[in-house]
Design goal:
four-stranded parallel β-sheet, 13 helices, 12 strands
């Protein structure tokens, strides 16, 4: 049993962190710049973001490695630095976390599809292995394969991570409500099909992130629990559904509004709660206060 499952075994609900990209842009990240490159060139700025979530009361923080696969890094001429960039990402979050807070190494979509012939399954496996090795070497306590929509890619990422580490592995998909009133990914994967895949792949933590505000995530968790009452569930909700205002995308759910829905999210069966797009340390602070007061 890994460190994350160990902390969950007594029924405690853990609080995760919130958005990262927004704050990197606030610190000067350019639109055409690689966010993960900052792990090597501006580590203090990345550390400040990680620390802000620790100070806010998070039990778990992620790493600045969402786009750290060699396939994403190749677009910035950084493919050869895959291991170093991911190791640095984990080292920075580990430094912020200290001994009390856990670190989940983030692995996002590669942007390549096997069925489209853009990458072979072997290439995909080897690429994710390199990313996972870096995160493990940097001190991550677990791996979270997140914001996935394609079963084949997610399964390969899980297999690759599992082959190089015995850490806890989580996998979250991004579901949206369809016109048929069903939650599915952009690739058409439903919740039942997703759960079948992650359980067969040996994932320890399931769940959903992005794509929904907290209200939508409550319904997704309920559906997960109808199928599987036992698997630990992680939820990183957006701060509401995105709105386009004054030329920019905003997420309207305030920290108070988001925290007030935590009771229903936990009652639905969530074991780890945090945020995705639009969530700030202020959101996580109130969520943490609510969870720890229950």
């Amino acid at each position: 049993m890994g460190k994350i499952l160990e902390k969950l075994k007594d029924g405690r609900v853990l609080v995760s962190d919130g958005a990262w990209g927004t704050f990197l842009h606030q610190k000067g990240l350019k639109a055409d710049e690689c966010p993960e490159s900052w792990n090597l060139h501006r580590p203090d700025d990345v550390l400040e973001i990680a620390r802000s979530y620790v100070i806010a009361g998070a039990d778990i923080i992620l790493t600045n490695s969402f786009g750290g696969s060699p396939f994403k890094l190749e677009g910035y001429g950084l493919r050869d630095q895959t291991f170093e960039i991911n190791r640095a990402a984990a080292e920075i979050s580990r430094k912020a976390a200290g001994d009390q807070v856990l670190v989940l190494g983030s692995i996002g979509p590669t942007g390549k599809m096997v069925f489209m012939g853009e990458v072979t399954e072997v290439e995909l496996l080897e690429g994710i292995k390199e990313q996972a090795r870096g995160l493990m070497a940097g001190g991550a306590d677990g791996i979270i394969i997140e914001t996935m929509s394609d079963l084949q890619e997610a399964q390969a990422a899980i297999a690759a991570s599992r082959s190089v580490t015995d850490l806890d592995i989580g996998c979250t998909f991004t579901f949206s409500l369809t016109a048929d009133n069903e939650y599915k990914t952009m690739m058409g994967t439903g919740i039942e099909e997703y759960l079948e895949m992650v359980k067969s792949a040996g994932v320890q933590i399931a769940g959903a992130n992005c794509g929904n505000g907290t209200a939508g995530m409550i319904e997704i968790v309920k559906q997960i629990r109808q199928i599987d009452p036992d698997i630990p569930v992680l939820v990183h909700a957006n701060a509401g559904l995105p709105l386009y205002r004054d030329g920019e995308t905003v997420f309207p759910e305030s920290a108070d509004e988001m925290a007030s829905q935590m009771k229903d999210l936990v009652a639905a069966g969530a074991n780890i709660v945090g945020g995705c797009c639009g969530t700030t340390p202020a959101h996580i602070s109130l969520i943490s206060q609510f969870i720890k007061s229950e």
